[in-house]
């Protein structure tokens, strides 16, 4: 049993509330334990200059943590005048991950910007952002289809992410902050609904790890991602 009473292969309490924002074309509030992230999608009828005259769309993402999403207030990055390297790395991960399951030709000449705002953080914010952002994006495309702007959803598969790691010698699923900060090995895994890998970010924090341990972590990640995808399927159809 872990500090919060879970078994090693158990997700934190998971919920996704669809459409909490009345103004965004698509939105979702995801809760993974005490990590809560609001994802909103904004659609614009234009694309970046590098896609001019190609007849296709684009998906991009931005990520941020609210000042009191952690134990102490963190100044807004806008007030500091620049984004941290961590923020840039995470929003690029979110954008890359979502683009892996989008058919841009079916999307049309438009850009979907996904804003992921961390309301409360207790580890795994990038993974929660991806799972919530997928639902928000699916809702945005569904709304376009309903009004006849697109013929079918550009999404080709479901998408979710989860953290795994080795804590006190034990492979564990969906690390909370106290586990993440003490883990011997820390890994974030992004996968499609079919079980294909999109991205793996694995780091030996305090010791190296074997191929056998890595395979065990990937198996744990797939178990957790399957459960997240099952919830997504109950909320949105692609």
Automatic annotation (TrEMBL):
GO terms for biological process: rRNA 3'-end processing; rRNA catabolic process; tRNA processing. It catalyses: tRNA(n+1) + phosphate = tRNA(n) + a ribonucleoside 5'-diphosphate. Phosphate binds at residues 86, 124-126. Gene3D superfamilies: GHMP Kinase, N-terminal domain. It holds the Pfam family RNase_PH_C. Residues 10-140, 157-223 form the Exoribonuclease phosphorolytic domain. Belongs to the RNase PH family. Homohexameric ring arranged as a trimer of dimers. This is Ribonuclease PH.
